[in-house]
Design goal:
Shape: globular
Radius of gyration: 15 Å
Distance between the termini: 24 Å
Helix content: 40-55%
Strand order of the largest sheet: 1-2-3
Structural class: mainly alpha
């Protein structure tokens, strides 16, 4: 299992904000507690958020050293299907799903 985060300026603002009742903030904090840094996949969908070292607050503290997937051009081109395929393969890679399915076939 893992957590996929689509990073936007608005999402970062909410996660780093002071409203403890904000769903994005609660989701992020809960996800970090459950999955930790190694199982949180960041997919940047806005070019302004590509450099994770420039992130602020709790997002930078928890994920600033993680290399995010750059989906900004994919989303700009309105190719959402391609992004889903890319993210699925990334998740499979992290969780070992593709290895398990190959083992079952053998």
């Amino acid at each position: 299992e893992c957590m996929l985060i689509f990073v936007t300026e608005n999402y970062a603002r909410k996660v780093n904000g002071g409203n403890d009742q904000d769903y994005c903030k609660r989701e992020f904090e809960s996800g970090f507690g459950v999955f930790g840094r190694k199982k949180m996949i960041t997919a940047v969908v806005e070019e302004s958020m590509l450099d994770s070292r420039s992130w602020k607050g709790i997002m930078r503290f928890n994920l600033g050293s993680v290399m995010p997937f750059d989906l900004s051009k994919v989303f700009k081109a309105s190719s959402f299907e391609l992004s889903k395929i890319l993210m699925k393969s990334s998740i499979d890679c992290l969780t070992g799903s593709s290895q398990r399915s190959q083992t079952k076939k053998e």
